[in-house]
């Protein structure tokens, strides 16, 4: 997910100079997916909570979280950087994307549940708010 969000930000910002970072991110994704499917290093079972089951972080979950933080931060920086010298229309589009990425980033609180923090994962709230904003703006 974070790599796709970063890829989206690069496409919207029209920032081809970031391509080498994007390819590295996809390579790390491929490695993490392979490890996820074949070992317990990324996800190591499940936690049973009052709201249901949730994945238990393996030792390499921290790598995924670090990648998420790095890519979301870099994607937001690229969106901000490119809007500073964009046309008015493009600036509006880039700032809207920047706001959306910032809002959706709040869903990262769900990672705490992977480490056993027993609260209902609030990640659905930023998603619902974002969808509500889209509905209001479009209609």
Secondary-structure map with pairings?
Elements: H1 2-13, H2 19-38, E1 43-49, E2 52-57, H3 61-83, H4 88-105, H5 111-114, H6 124-138
Give me a quick take on this structure.
By secondary structure, the chain is mainly alpha-helical. The protein is built from 6 helices and 2 strands, in the order ααββαααα.
Describe it.
There is one protein chain. By secondary structure, this protein is mainly alpha-helical. It has one domain (2-138). The protein is built from six helices and two strands. It has helices at residues 2-13, 19-38, 61-83, 88-105, 111-114, 124-138; strands at 43-49, 52-57. A two-stranded antiparallel ribbon has the order 1-2. Strand 1 and strand 2 (52-57) form a beta hairpin. The model has no long low-confidence stretch (mean pLDDT 91).
Give the CA-based shape.
flat
| Structural class computed from helices and strand pairing | mainly alpha
Number of domains: 1
List the total number of helices. Answer: 6
Rg (C-alpha, Å): 17 Å
Residue runs with pLDDT of under 50 for 5 or more positions: none
By DSSP, the count of extended strands is 2
Largest sheet: 2 strands, antiparallel
Strand portion: 5-15%
Percentage of helical residues?
55-70%
Mean pLDDT across residues: 91
**Helix-strand pattern:** HHEEHHHH
Strands of the widest sheet, in order across it, are 1-2
